[in-house]
């Protein structure tokens, strides 16, 4: 495993930290770039990274700003993130900046490590997990405002965009009336909500029916007694963040929902953006209800926009998997990612 950083904005001194499985033995291979979700840092993908070389794939997980090793947000950026700023122009500029940083990271990594392109049997699969699926579309949707050489290079490499269990709200879609998490439960002391959410969202859930697409047949609150939550499966405390870095995610979802929705629709549903890039959605059948509801919401949104040229997408449901299958069963997770890549 390689731990390092890449500078993605020289003038502002912005860098993103990452961990890398390294190149597998064969000359041509797919590289998967993964963005973590709320609270858990890039190391939540460590077990997948350890497995990647044996599967003939390169796996790179990066930390978003302001998570450890990546550059903190400036005072101005932090204020806009936590308050929504003063107008849409400020919000749009900040979303574009976050997208550019990630897109440039991938472009620099491609050049630095001479990654094999799609034409040589390689290319890049871009995976956003949970709230990471908020940020992955921002990178794709913002590429048309990057220099032409960057856009041209990414066009030669970007083979797939994979949304891995985002809630509808993580894509700017409406909050469902059935939605419940500890994060929005006002009966739980505010200082305990993140910690309670972590143990709950790492659980397994017995949904009555995930075929009929009935939101009321999903288990929104009660976890299954059949299997212990991932939280108790050796997840190191040091990769869990409960401070200011993790706390920036919720206000960002709330204040930037319009911009998040626009980025997701442009990246995932617009047939003119990387027209040959595959779009996919992955979720488990034992995951939190919000992950399955996210899939259904995107299916409905795609159907609604199909007449406007919305790009069709693929999906995969992983049997027996929860929101942390990449930790509990990394081989099952990596196989699913590769199927969608």
UniProtKB/TrEMBL annotation:
It holds the Pfam family Abhydrolase_6. InterPro entries: AB_hydrolase_1, AB_hydrolase_fold. Residues 35-332 form the AB hydrolase-1 domain. It comes from the Eukaryota. Coiled coil: none annotated. This is AB hydrolase-1 domain-containing protein. The lineage of its organism: Eukaryota, Fungi, Dikarya, Basidiomycota, Agaricomycotina.
């Amino acid at each position: 495993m390689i731990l390092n950083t890449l500078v993605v904005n020289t003038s502002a001194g912005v860098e993103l930290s990452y961990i890398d499985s390294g190149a597998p033995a064969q000359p041509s291979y797919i590289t998967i770039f993964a963005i973590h979700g709320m609270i858990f840092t890039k190391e939540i993908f460590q077990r997948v990274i350890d497995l990647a070389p044996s599967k003939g794939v390169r796996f790179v997980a990066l930390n978003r700003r302001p998570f450890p090793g990546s550059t903190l947000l400036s005072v101005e950026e932090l204020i806009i993130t936590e308050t929504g700023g003063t107008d849409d122009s400020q919000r749009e500029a900040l979303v574009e900046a976050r997208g550019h940083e990630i897109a440039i990271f991938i472009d620099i990594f491609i050049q630095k490590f001479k990654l094999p392109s799609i034409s040589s049997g390689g290319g890049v699969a871009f995976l956003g997990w949970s709230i990471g699926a908020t940020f992955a579309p921002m990178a794709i949707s913002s590429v048309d405002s990057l220099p032409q050489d960057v856009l041209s290079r990414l066009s030669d490499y970007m083979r797939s965009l994979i949304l891995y269990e985002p809630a509808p709200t993580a894509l700017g879609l409406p909050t469902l009336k059935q939605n419940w998490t500890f994060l929005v439960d006002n009966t739980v002391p505010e200082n305990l909500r993140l910690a309670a959410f972590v143990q709950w969202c790492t659980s397994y859930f017995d949904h009555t029916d995930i075929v009929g697409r009935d939101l009321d047949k999903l288990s929104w609150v009660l976890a299954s007694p059949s299997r212990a939550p991932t939280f108790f499966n050796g997840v190191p405390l040091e990769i869990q963040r409960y401070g200011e870095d993790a706390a920036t995610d919720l206000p960002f979802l709330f204040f930037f929902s319009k911009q998040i929705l626009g980025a997701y629709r442009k990246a995932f549903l617009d047939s003119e953006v990387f027209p040959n890039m595959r779009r996919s959605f992955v979720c488990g059948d034992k995951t939190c209800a919000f992950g399955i509801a996210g899939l259904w919401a995107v299916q409905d949104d795609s159907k609604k926009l199909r007449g406007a040229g919305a790009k069709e997408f693929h999906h995969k449901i992983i049997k027996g998997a929860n929101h942390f299958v990449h930790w509990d069963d990394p081989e099952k997770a990596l196989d699913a990612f590769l199927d969608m890549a």
